[in-house]
Design goal:
The structure holds two protein chains of two kinds. Chain A is an alpha/beta fold. Helix content of chain A is 43%, strand content 14%. The longest helix of chain A has 22 residues. Classes of the chains: A alpha/beta, B mainly alpha. Chains A and B meet through helix 1, helix 3, strand 7 and helix 8 of A and helix 4, helix 7, helix 8 and helix 9 of B.
Chain lengths: 311, 228
C-alpha cells in the first residue's frame, strides 16, 4: 500500500518534471516527426515543410519562406520552434522538414570547427564543401543576424568598453550571460579567452532573452550575448561590442534545403526573391513586431510579403 | 551514446554550475519554499480549522492555486522584480501553500470532538485545546500535507533554471539547448531520485508521528482503549 503510493507519487513527480522540461522550448524535439517524406520523388509540386529554430527571427523567416512558396502554388507548411541547431539539423536530415532558415557562419562552424574563413565571401565559398551531400545551400541574403556581445551604456562609459578587445581589463569581475548553448560555441567564453585574452569570471546560461536583458539592466550580469537583430538591443540602448579580430563569423541569412527540394526551381525561386528583398534593418523591424508588439509571425510575414509584392 | 555518460563523468560533478552545485541549489529552493509555505500555512490552517471560519476560503484558494502555472508566475515575478533566489522561493512557496494549508485545516477541524470536549471539560484554555489536543491529533495529516507539498516543489523547482536560478532544471534546459541527451537524462534521474528520497523520508516521518501519537493517547486515556 505504502509502496504503491510511493511509486505513484514518484511517477507523478517525474511526469510533471517532464512537462516542465518540455514547456520551455515549445515543440518537443524528441517527438516523432509527424510527416515522413524521406523518399525523394524529385521536385514538381512535392509539399514543402519549412522548419525553424526556437527563436522569433527564425520563425518569421520560416513564415516568409513558406508563404512565398505557397504563393507560387506549391503546397507549403511550417514546423516552427523545433529547437537549437543540433535539433533542427537532425530534423532536416531525417526529412521531417525540407528547408530551414540558417546563418552562414554558424552553419560552417557546425560542420567544420577549424574553418579558417572569416569574411562573408570566404564563408560562402567554404560552406558547400563542408555540408553533407544531401543538404543544399540557397543564396545568402544581405540580412545579417550575428551573435553580438553587448554591455549597458553606463557600463561601457564607466569602464571604457566598446570592443571585445577591451574586455580583457574587466573580465575578471564580469559575469557573462548568454543562451545555454553559447557555453560550447567556438565564439563563447572559450573564444573570448583565446582570441581576446578575456578570461571572464563566470558564464550564466539564460533561456530567455528577456530575463537576460532584465539581469543586464539590474547589473546581475555585466556582459550579455544577444542576436544583432533582437529588439532588446536598440530598446535598452545597449552598446554592441566591436569584434576587431573577426572572432564571430558573418551570419547572413541563408536557406538550407534538402537536396531534392533544392532541385525544385519554383521553390528556390520563391525563396530567393525573399532573400533578395530582406535586409538587417527590415529583419530587426519584423522581429520587433513579433517580440514587442506581440503580433503573430504569420500575419507579420504576410504583410511584409504583400508590401514587397511577393505574395 | 550512453545516457549515463554525463552522470558518470566525475568532471561534471564539482565546480560552479556543475551537478553538485545545482543539486545544492535545488535542495535550497525546495527546503526554503516548503519552510516559507509552512510558516504561513500552518498557523493559518490551525486558525481556520479551530474556528471553523473561512474554510470556504481554504477550499477556494487551494483549488485556484493549483491552477496557477508556476512557470508563468515565475516569469511574471522576474519581469516585475528581477531575478534572484528570493523570487524563485516565493513562487515555489505559493505552489506548496495549498497542500499544507488544507491538510492542517482538515487535521485540526477533524480532531476527535470527544477529545476536544474532554479537554474543555478538564478546564483547558482554547490555546491549550489547540496545542495539547487538536495539534497532536492533526500532526499526521500535517506531515502528509508537507509531504505532498515537498514532492510538488522538488519536481517544480526545475523552473528555477528559466529564471537563471540554476537548480537541477539547468541540466534539462542546457541539455535540450545543446541536444546533450545524457545531460538531460542526468537531470531527470537526479530530480526523480530526489523526489523518491524525499517521499520516503517524509513517509517515514509521517509513520513515526502517527505511531507516537497513538501510545501516548493510550496511556492518557487508560486501558479502556483497545490496543490497535
Amino acid at each position: 500500500m505504502n509502496l504503491r503510493r510511493t511509486v505513484t507519487v514518484a511517477g507523478v513527480s517525474l511526469a510533471s518534471l517532464l512537462l516542465a522540461a518540455c514547456g520551455g522550448a515549445g515543440t518537443d524535439p524528441l517527438a516523432e516527426p509527424s510527416a515522413g517524406g524521406s523518399a525523394s520523388s524529385g521536385g514538381g509540386g512535392q509539399p514543402v515543410i519549412v522548419g525553424s529554430a526556437a527563436f522569433t527571427e527564425s520563425t518569421v523567416v520560416a513564415e516568409l519562406y513558406a508563404q512565398a512558396i505557397a504563393a507560387k502554388g506549391v503546397q507549403a507548411s511550417t514546423k516552427l520552434n523545433i529547437g537549437s541547431r543540433e535539433v533542427y539539423l537532425k530534423a532536416l536530415e531525417d526529412g521531417s522538414i525540407s528547408v530551414v532558415p540558417e546563418y552562414t557562419g554558424n552553419l560552417l562552424l557546425n560542420y567544420d570547427q577549424d574553418a579558417t574563413a572569416t569574411t562573408a565571401e570566404e564563408v560562402e565559398q567554404a560552406l558547400p564543401e563542408a555540408l553533407p551531400a544531401d543538404f543544399k545551400l540557397g543564396s545568402p541574403s544581405a540580412a545579417v543576424d550575428q551573435d553580438v556581445y553587448v554591455v549597458t551604456k553606463e557600463y561601457s562609459e564607466a569602464n571604457g568598453v566598446t570592443s571585445l578587445a577591451d574586455l580583457e581589463k574587466v573580465a575578471a569581475d564580469a559575469i557573462l550571460g548568454g543562451p545555454s548553448e553559447l557555453a560550447t560555441r567556438a565564439y563563447g567564453p572559450e573564444g573570448l579567452d583565446k582570441v581576446y585574452g578575456a578570461k571572464i569570471k563566470q558564464f550564466k546560461p539564460y533561456d530567455s532573452a528577456a530575463v537576460r536583458a532584465r539581469d543586464l539592466n539590474d547589473g546581475k550580469i555585466q556582459i550579455g550575448e544577444f542576436f544583432s537583430t533582437e529588439a532588446v538591443i536598440p530598446d535598452n540602448g545597449y552598446v554592441v561590442l566591436e569584434d576587431p579580430q573577426a572572432m564571430i563569423l558573418p551570419q547572413n541569412v541563408v536557406p538550407l534545403y534538402r537536396a531534392e527540394v533544392a532541385s525544385d526551381a519554383t521553390v528556390t525561386g520563391a525563396v530567393d526573391a525573399v532573400q533578395q528583398a530582406l535586409t538587417t534593418e527590415e529583419l530587426t523591424a519584423l522581429n520587433k513586431q513579433v517580440d514587442v508588439d506581440k503580433a503573430d509571425p504569420d500575419d507579420v510575414a504576410k504583410e511584409w510579403l504583400t508590401s514587397k509584392g511577393l505574395a | 551514446m550512453n545516457v549515463f555518460d554525463y552522470l558518470l563523468d566525475g568532471a561534471n560533478w564539482l565546480g560552479g554550475g556543475k551537478i553538485l552545485d545545482l543539486l545544492l541549489q535545488h535542495l535550497f529552493y525546495t527546503a526554503a519554499a516548503v519552510l516559507l509555505a509552512a510558516v504561513v500555512a500552518i498557523p493559518l490552517g490551525i486558525l481556520i480549522g479551530h474556528t471553523g471560519r473561512g474554510s470556504f476560503l481554504v477550499i477556494g484558494l487551494s483549488n485556484a492555486a493549483r491552477a496557477i502555472p508556476s512557470l508563468g508566475l515565475l516569469f511574471l515575478a522576474v519581469m516585475l522584480l528581477g531575478t534572484g533566489a528570493g523570487n524563485i522561493v516565493v513562487v515555489l512557496a505559493i505552489l506548496a501553500l495549498p497542500a499544507i494549508l488544507t491538510a492542517t485545516a482538515a487535521g485540526i477541524s477533524g480532531a476527535d470532538p470527544e477529545a476536544v470536549h474532554a479537554g474543555r471539560a478538564l478546564g483547558m484554555t482554547e490555546r491549550q485545546v489547540v496545542s495539547q489536543v487538536e495539534w497532536p491529533l492533526a500532526l499526521p495529516l500535517v506531515v502528509s500535507g508537507l509531504r505532498s507539498a515537498t514532492l510538488q516543489v522538488v519536481a517544480t523547482a526545475t523552473v528555477a533554471a528559466f529564471a537563471s536560478g540554476g537548480g537541477l532544471g539547468q541540466l534539462l534546459t542546457s541539455g535540450q539547448a545543446q541536444s546533450d541527451y545524457p545531460q538531460m537524462f542526468a537531470g531527470a534521474v537526479l530530480i526523480a531520485a530526489l523526489a523518491i528520497l524525499f517521499d520516503l523520508l517524509l513517509g517515514l516521518a509521517g509513520w513515526g508521528v502517527a505511531r507516537r501519537a497513538r501510545p501516548r493517547s493510550r496511556t492518557a486515556v487508560g486501558a479502556a482503549v483497545a490496543p490497535a
